[in-house]
Amino acid sequence: MRKKITFSFLVFFTATFSLLFAQSITVSGKVSDDSGNALPGVNIQVKGTNTGTASDFDGNYEISASQGDVLIFSFLGFKTKEVTITGTSLDVNLEEDSSQLDEVVVTALGITREKKSLGYAIQEVNGDDINKASEANVVNTLAGKVAGIQIQGTGNIGGSSRILLRGASSLTGNNQPLFVVDGVPIDNTNFGSDTQAYGSRDDINGNVDYGNAAQDINPDDVATVTVLKGANAAALYGSRAANGVILITTKKGKKSNGLGVDVNYGLSLESAYDFPDLQNEYGGGQSLDFANIGTDGIPIQNVSTDESWGPRLDGRLVRQWDGEGDGGEVRPWVAHPDNYKDFFNTGEIHKTNVAVSNGDENGNYRVSYTNLNHDGIVPNSNINRNSFNLNLNGKINKLSVSTNFNYINTKGMGRPKGGGSSDNLTYNMVIWSQRQLDIERLRDYERADGSQRTWRTSGLDRTNVRANNPFWLANKDFQDDEKNRFIGNVKVQYDLTEHINASIKYGFDKYDDRRRDRRAIGSRYTPYYISKIFNFSEENIDALLQYNNPELTEDLSLIINLGANKMSRTLETNSGATQGGLTVDNIYSLANSVDPAFITRELSNKETNSVYASSSLGYKDLLYLDLTARNDWSSTLPKDNWSYFYPSITGSIIFSKLIESEKLSFGKFRLGWAQVGNDTGPYRLSNNYIQGSPVGGNPIFFLPSTLNNASLKPEITTSFETGIELKLFNNRLGFDLTYYTGNTTDQIMPITVSETTGFSRKWVNAGEIKNSGIEVQLTGTIVKNENFSWDIGVNWAKNDNEVVELAEGLDTYLMSTFYTSGPAIVTLESRVGEPFSSIYATKIARDPDGNKIVDSNGYYVSGEHAFIGSVLPDWTSGITNTISYKNFTLSALIDIQQGGVFFGRGYQTAIYAGTIDITAANGVRENGIVAEGVMEDGSGGYVPNTTPAASVDQYFRLMRRNPGDFTTFDASFVKLREMSLQYSFPTKALGKLPINSLNISLVGRNLAILSRNTPNGYDPESAGNASGNIQGREYGQLPTARTVGMNIKLSF
Amino acid sequence: MKKILIIFILSVSIIGCTNDFEELNKDPLKATEVPTPTLLTAATQSLIGINSGLGYNKTVLFYSQQWAQRETTTRSQYGLNVEGDWSDFYGVLPEIMEIIKLNTGEDSASYSVYGKNENQIAVAMILRAWVFHNITDTWGNVPYSEAFNNEISSPKYDKQEDIYLGLLQELKDASALIDTNASGFTSGDLMYNGDMSKWKAFANSLRARIAMRMSEVNPSLAQSEVADALGSSVFSSNADNAVIAFQNEEANANPLYIEFLTQSWTFVSEPLIDLMNSYGSGTATNPSDPRTSKYADPNVDGDFIGFPYGLATTDTFLYEINERSLPSEMTRAIDFPSYIMTYSELLFIKAEAEQRGWFGAVGDAAMSYEQAINASMEQWGVDASNISSYLALADVQYNAANWKKYIGEQKHIALYFQGGNAWSEWRRLDFPVLDFPAAASSNASEIPRRFFYASSEASVNGTNLEQAINDMGGDTFSTRMWWDQ
Do A598 and B251 touch (CB under 8 A)? Predict the structure, then answer.
């Protein structure tokens, strides 16, 4: 059963329609769903009569009718089926219907409501669609399935995924939606990986992508995901819901006609497929000739450089080092085109889920265990996750108790290190490398004495490592981590009257996340061990009084909720790092530090209290009006401003009730307005001293670089949305259009101030960001007959974003400087009048006619630091095609992004190092290059350039001076995101086997990039960086990988 | 049912409590009061981090051509943005300003346990003057009088001329504040360990340096200030040097030590080694200046050969690493100190003041010049016998007729590892003669006379920056200091 329905509702339903008349024969049978689960409460009616009944709790029914009569089976959430009576026994399978009108959805506060009554856009994704593929991160499974959701995943093993719903509204704060599991908010922080793509050479704290915390949710336990997109839908979850809410409902136990055991096993293979086009013409070195010739007359490989501007790979004998010791080895100087590709393994993902569930009218349970084991494409990388889920619901008279408890243990190891770090594998192999290197010779990365075998060394005994062997990095300099997380809630509800109930719910999310990183003795840079332990806790207590009367009068229905919430959140971070290296080899402990280890502890506490109310008034299933109001008290704001109120109002009219039309099955118009207030992080009101590491035993304290502000006030997002929903031609065609605007004012942000004030930033309330957009959903059934059906679903969304205002006197908010060298600069900025987070980069200077200007050496001259584009896309779209033939279902999801830009820092650096193909195309290194453009003629005019570049490699290196022309890219793409072929064994075929249902599917994810405007190996999504606001810089990411696998689902 | 309602209402009221909010929003792990010595150590550690670090320090070692760059020669070709230096310099001052604030505020008495309030203030004022002097000599007009004021978020740029007057006054005031009979900083003073008479000597010596820098634009004021400063208590031996050692621990190590652990990107320059060999009949194998082996390491053949200055990146690969001289192992040591001002420099100032007839007898200039070289040699640990044979060389003998060359060159050699100061003295005296590298970037048409302003200022303090650029007559490498006309 995919829709959640309360049992009392079923009884009510049954009673209303059960009218029995005497008929000639009694027909009986059983109603079940596709998977063979009994369906209780199905409405069964003899066509053309008032005769009807409902199935009982085990799905059995009896009805009096005549031979040849047609029975109509209808049930909420399923397609209505008509069957002609040909005997006295009739078993029926009902097919689930995702586009049904009377669809019920889980809304804020876990209240189940008919979708048609809502005055705001909401979209639900079925659990089956989520756990079909062996994708570990539940966030990634939403890509392409929800209109207006932008998901950017780093693609790293256990890596991050960033979600934006309807664009970004906060300049410096969190733009991620709130995750709520069974009514309890859970944490989705991405600790310490904001700099994941930016790590500098020795940034040992920030260059590992640990992923966002919501990925701990086990997709196998998810029944539905509801996306509440705007502030309208979210007003009841408070401040954190200003960016929308991802509402996850876990699976509950249900009455089973078998053992109630479900088994799901999936195996996927992961293979890297998008590699950069590297040149295979020239080897390592700085010039076309060998600078060093040995006394034996044999040229010697230049290992004093890690670039590939060297001699042509012509097969001559050269003394080379690919890990050899003193003296090297004489071998032909030839290309190894796959020396990057061959480093990677085929990854394997095994996922096993076993769930046992059962239930009756007094209670139900579901226990589930899932193991996910992922061996990544990088050698020695693995994620192993064990998830336990327990769901218990019980009812005694008027008292009902429900609990959900999750324990998730995740062990990770060898997560890739990103950015401009020497520990970044791609940086090591694609950029600072020599193209002739033979990766096979590097597999043996360690000498007998424990020292590193690598290709680039110096010193007479070749022990001074100048470049790490990538296999050494993967096997000796890897990180590992372990996280234990408990998420759960207990809810006690008492039905005071038929219409009123009171409930108290305690929800918690607690975890400890231990991260360790190491660099072994023998590595290029100082060895280290670091350890970080995050202890996170969030507790929520909710008290809720609900009044729900569907029949207040004959025409009116009314729901009222009154609630209160207390949220307490604590994060403690303990970290330690060795200093000055490790004393003893292979001991990874702070005690093994050469100098005293540096140890820090941080603590952050926050509480909010809230009271809220909501009401929903319905008139004749025709008009609906919803009101919400909330007041928050936040500990992070000063006393005068810590209380703030925000309301919302939405309404809808089902106008199809007023129009008689054959074609129009359903039509709704909706309108809504909402405000959400927002607080800030803790400790931003007054300044403290910051302790540094002691200097020669003398303690030190610094002043903070950010000036706090004792008079902060809450920021406010005001949003408006309107939409229309149509179902045409007997529901064959569905259309949903939403237009929205959102304005965030009084943003709490740390603006940049002149460093001459003594601070570099200052917290203020300032700024305004405006978002507006359109979301469209189209669903259509193109073909439908007994055995064959073809459905198409299209999501399309466009968001326009504008920075309307910043702080007084400030028209640019510099978010990050991505690159600066000489006259060139690449920045991520938010400027007034431009979209949020836009890339600005130096471009080639142009003459008045727009021609590129070349200097007297034949190199392009740098011009202005110009607007390149917003990192946010113009529009996104997802297209799903589902074709069913008998028991086969084939579906494909295409994910499209139009627009958005990123800066290819890794690509630029690979050009600099002479490894990318363009640096060797058409014999350019020998033939020289004449830059297309004009040169000053000496008298103020310009003439076409005919001067060859003074040095070819310098020409390419100097591309970095004009990144705006050479290394910023359009991030548009069309991807084949997901494809699956599923076969459900017919019940008959299973025969006497003790199996209720059996499904086998083949699933592929991230199968292909169908269209792109970037060079190979530079995935348009590669500029993703954790989940913070600093996006749009690629720096040596791992190759994009596809997963292909199979899945077997069994129910006993 | 009533019971349940009561429980419900009770639980709602528990939820609604905000009593502990203010306490909750205070970071329990951060100090709101700290001993002032911890601020002094923090400030001086940051200060030597710039003075001997990988940013400003390396850049000025290149601009003064004491060092040459290999592999990536952007900076020595005048190609690199120097964004970080501006924030580093201004970033040293908050802790110094805080010392003054705490020792003058309502609770100043509680801070006197760390040293007499006035002495603490004087130390902070002297360090502040040193920092601002470096800032103005690097950029020209800079925020000074309105900087570090919480009320002013866009400080105006003061003219260099006015900043100089301010700095001289500050140093005079600081010197006057010092009570040598009372306690200085009781701990955390890594430079003088609380010895206030040494701080006083540093204040006056620094004042002599600043005053002498005005020699070409305001000779009369320069004369009176130099004479006044030299007449006060000043450095009297290398024991008085303003110098702070790095620690024998990686977290607080000499930044160059860390860099040289893995990289050999910087060498002693050919121009410096050639200049040192221009005195006497020195050769690569037998350098005449005994400091050569203190400054540089011999190459693989045992010779001292500098690396050519200002080559294009690709050309640097034509020179083998082991055939050129790296900075000496001593200077690359983990705890090699950071020199802020030395006795030798003071003696060169004295020699110049005597030569100019501003202080003492003109005839004493030669003696002060020799004493200055002697102090430099002693500072670098040269044997007394080697010192005297060097001083005996005819070429080394002071030539009053050509005093700018002699003082300029010898001071330049003595200011090794004090690139900023060496660069300033070259700008003032135009000695030694340095060549403009052929491979220089198009940013510069001559050896830079200053740094570009930080581009961050354009977005956060644009109006004032524009005014400063107007007053300075541009924001280029060739824009001159007020004192370098």
Answer: yes
Q: Which tokens is B262 given?
A: 């893995």
Cα of first residue to Cα of last residue in chain A, in angstroms, is 16
Kindly state the helix (H) or strand (E) to which residue A245 belongs, with its residue range: strand A245-250
| Lowest mean pLDDT, pick from A219-223, A231-235, A557-561 | A231-235
Which has the closest alpha carbon to A178: A745, A560, A608? A608
A362 touches chain B (CB under 8 A): no
State the best of B317, B324, B326, B464 to mutate against chain A, taking most chain A CBs within 10 Å: B317
Interchain CB contact of A583 with B (< 8 Å): no
Tell me the two tokens of residue B321: 């690493």
Q: Beta strands of A584-710 (E only): which ranges?
A: 593-619, 623-634, 643-653, 664-678, 690-695, 698-702, 706-707
Three-state DSSP at A60 gives strand
The arithmetic mean of pLDDT across residues A333-353, rounded, is: 95
Q: How far apart are CA A163 and CA A171, in angstroms?
A: 16
Output the pLDDT for position A935: 94
User: Looking at the partner chain, which of B8, B41, B459 has a beta carbon nearest the beta carbon of A700?
Assistant: B41
What secondary structure letter does DSSP report for B434? -
**Predicted pLDDT at B316:** 82
Query: Is the CB of A611 less than 8 angstroms away from the CB of B90?
Result: no
- What mean pLDDT comes out for the span A257-267? 84
Mean model confidence pLDDT for chain B: 93
- Residue A455 reports pLDDT greater than 80: yes
Spatial contact of A671 and A650, defined as CB atoms under 8 Å apart = yes
| Residue A708 burial by Cβ neighbours in a 10 Å radius (0-12, 13-18, 19+) | middle
Question: Has residue A612 got a pLDDT over 70?
Answer: yes
Give me the residues of B, 85-144, that contact A with CB < 8 A.
86-87, 90-91, 93-95, 97-98, 142-143
Tell whether the model's pLDDT for residue A492 goes beyond 90. Answer: yes
- Give B-chain residues touching A691 at CB under 8 angstroms: 30-31
Q: Is residue A425 within 8 Å of residue A343, measured between CB atoms?
A: yes
Which residues, 6 or more positions from B335, have their beta carbon under 8 angstroms from its beta carbon? B245, B246, B247, B248, B253, B254
Please, what is the angle between helix B403-414 and helix B419-429, to 10°? 170
Q: How confident is the model at residue B10 (pLDDT cuts 50, 70, 90)?
A: low
Chain B positions in Cβ-Cβ contact with residue A753 (cut-off 8 Å): 153, 460
Higher-pLDDT residue of B114, A54: B114
Residue B253 has pLDDT above 80, yes or no: yes
d(CA B287, CA B275): 11
Name the residue of chain B whose CA is nearest to A700's CA.
Answer: B38
In the prediction, which pLDDT does A1027 show? Answer: 56
Beta-carbon contacts of A252 under 8 Å, excluding residues fewer than 6 positions away, are A4, A223, A357, A359, A364, A366, A391, A393
Q: Is A864 an interface residue toward B (CB < 8 Å)?
A: no
B residues 28-67 near A, CB within 8 Å? Answer: 28-35, 37-39, 41-42, 45
Whether chain B has a CB inside 8 Å of the CB on A762: the answer is yes
In this structure, what token pair is assigned to residue A212?
A: 């966002």
Residue A609 to residue B148, Cβ atoms within 8 A: no
The Cα of A605 is separated from the nearest Cα of chain B by a number of Å equal to 7
Q: A interface mutation test: which of B17, B24, B320 has the most A CBs within 10 A?
A: B24
Mean pLDDT for the stretch of residues A370-398: 93
Peptide bond into A1039 cis (omega under 30): no
Give yes or no for A988 touching B (CB within 8 A).
no
Listed residue (A949, A960, A961) closest to A913, CA to CA: A960
Burial A951-980 (b: 16+ CB within 10 A, else e): bbbbbbbbbbbbbbbbbbbbbbbbbbbbbb
